[in-house]
């Protein structure tokens, strides 16, 4: 079952920006695209690099890994460009009273 957990204030990430957050030891990358939040695991599945340190492309809806340029959809975590092969996990989100909640 999903546990809705507080991630951050909805104004903690600007529209068109992305940022890392921790829930316990879990490191997540939150993307704000047009006021809608998308959350995926921050650690790349290809190597040791964080997607929150890379480029956010809101036209293609992808995060680009800063280490080798692998691309991941921030909607579902699916790999969208080499050398990314395995998806990063993605999480459902919702905003309640100005707080971004994530389903873990
Ligand atoms: Fe992310 Fe290689 S570590 S693409």
TrEMBL record:
Lineage, uppermost ranks: Bacteria, Pseudomonadati, Pseudomonadota, Alphaproteobacteria, Rhodospirillales
Keyword Cytoplasm included in the entry's annotation: no
InterPro entries in alphabetical order: Rieske_2Fe-2S (IPR017941), Rieske_2Fe-2S_sf (IPR036922)
Keyword annotations of the record: 2Fe-2S, Iron, Iron-sulfur, Metal-binding, Plasmid
Keyword ATP-binding belongs to the record: no
Protein's recorded name: Non-heme iron oxygenase ferredoxin subunit
Parts forming coiled coils: none
Residue ranges occupied by any Rieske domain in the UniProt entry: 4-102
GO molecular function: 2 iron, 2 sulfur cluster binding; metal ion binding
């Amino acid at each position: 079952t999903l546990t809705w957990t507080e991630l951050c204030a909805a104004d903690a990430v600007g529209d068109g920006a992305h940022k890392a957050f921790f829930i316990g030891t879990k490191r997540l990358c939150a993307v704000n695209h047009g006021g809608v939040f998308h959350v995926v695991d921050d650690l790349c599945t290809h190597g040791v690099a964080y997607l929150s340190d890379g480029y956010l492309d809101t036209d293609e809806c992808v995060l680009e890994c800063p280490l080798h340029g692998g691309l991941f959809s921030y909607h579902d975590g699916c790999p969208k460009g080499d050398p990314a092969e395995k998806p990063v996990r993605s999480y459902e989100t919702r905003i309640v009273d100005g707080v971004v909640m994530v389903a873990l």
